Amino acid sequence: VQAETLLEVNNIEVIYNHVILVLKGVSLNVPKGGITALLGGNGAGKTTTLKAISNLLHSERGEVTKGSVKYRGNPVHNGDPADLVQKGVIQVMEGRHCFEHLTVEENLLTGAYTRKDSKADIQADLDLVYSYFPRLKERRRSQAGYTSGGEQQMVAMGRALMSKPETILLDEPSMGLAPQLVEQIFQIVKSINENEGVTFLLAEQNTNVALRYAHYGYILESGRVVMDGPAADLRENPDVKEFYLGMS
Ligand code: ATP
């Protein structure tokens, strides 16, 4: 049985500042319950694709000028970013963006801000986040600005989890992290996906690690999808091996 498509990006074009054409017709499908990877080098358009989906282009003078983005069949492009959050889609930005002056735990609690649950529910969710990220429990009273890059990535992911999302858009989780930590972060993505049923669309330059954890991959080059397929097939593809996995 084919999984239901949650997110459908259909032939989108994105232009910055009215003139700079960055996405030249990108299409992709994100099935419910899967981990989908958006791969490609620096400047290929991965972040732009995620921001087009979550409606975060306006502040950068970017605009979806063609095509459509649908979530559960409903058009969402060029809408209000808050509507998408309401629908259960949350983006974890590249560079993490923690509130540096708040503690780790206060950062996590900001992720629950749209919810009207009781204190006990919110505490249960905090406990869940700490079960995936035991390190954050140890660091819960530390000011986020003084934690390491890996811990800040965990805070950003934990905060997203606090909003009980259906789908997480994760931008470049490996950025700036040591290989061992990258592996750990992807392990956690995998267990959140398997245990909580959260759907992931993740943008990643690290093709090697992403294709070991994702189910399906899209490869972007200069604003176009040049290849896509099940992760296992992409890993074996000679062009992917040569150009993205550094083997030939
Ligand atoms: P990275 O790994 O560097 O984030 P990426 O694949 O995510 O790469 P994007 O950040 O989406 O790529 O950038 C795609 C292209 O769009 C790049 O050429 C970039 O210079 C350009 N670009 C990004 N943001 C803007 C902006 N606000 N105004 C103009 N051009 C932009």
UniProtKB/TrEMBL annotation:
User: Per UniProt, which keywords does this protein have?
Assistant: Amino-acid transport, ATP-binding, Nucleotide-binding, Transport
Say which domain of life the source belongs to: Bacteria
Instruction: Look up the coiled coil feature and give its residue ranges.
Output: none
Ranges of residues in domain ABC transporter = 7-247
**GO terms (BP aspect):** L-amino acid transport
Keyword presence, Nucleotide-binding = yes
An annotated Gene Ontology molecular function: branched-chain amino acid transmembrane transporter activity
UniProt lists the family membership as follows:
Belongs to the ABC transporter superfamily.
Q: What's the protein called, per UniProt? A: Amino acid/amide ABC transporter ATP-binding protein 2, HAAT family
Native species = Cribrihabitans marinus
Portion held of the full protein: 32 to 279 of 300
